[in-house]
């Protein structure tokens, strides 16, 4: 899987204002900004992203994914992540 494919999978299942995925084919990091994260705890945000990936999280297709999940307001207040 490529970073572009993983990014497309997340974007298809979650409306994102900003989405960046990087990785080496097995280990991934993502910055995901979505209004759907409003009012949700960190674990709920991560579960929402995992839900978009479905079975890929249970196979070796996506071995590891570290995420920064932000609301649009949190993103605006975090210029170091841009």
From TrEMBL:
A UniProt-annotated Pfam family: BolA
What domain of life is recorded for the organism?
Bacteria
In terms of InterPro entries, this protein maps to: BolA (IPR002634), BolA-like_sf (IPR036065), BolA/IbaG_stress_morph_reg (IPR050961)
Q: Where is the signal peptide?
A: none
User: In which family does this protein belong, per the annotation?
Assistant: Belongs to the BolA/IbaG family.
Q: What is this protein called?
A: BolA family transcriptional regulator
Species name for this entry?
Ramlibacter tataouinensis (strain ATCC BAA-407 / DSM 14655 / LMG 21543 / TTB310)
**Taxonomic classification:** Bacteria, Pseudomonadati, Pseudomonadota, Betaproteobacteria, Burkholderiales
């Amino acid at each position: 899987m490529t970073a572009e494919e993983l990014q497309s999978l997340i974007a298809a299942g979650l409306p994102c204002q900003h989405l960046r995925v990087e990785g080496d084919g097995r280990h991934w990091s993502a910055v995901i900004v979505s209004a759907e994260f409003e009012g949700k705890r960190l674990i709920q945000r991560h579960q929402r992203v995992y839900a978009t990936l479905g079975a890929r999280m249970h196979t070796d297709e996506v071995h590891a994914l570290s995420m920064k999940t932000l609301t649009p307001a949190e993103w605006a207040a975090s210029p170091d992540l841009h």
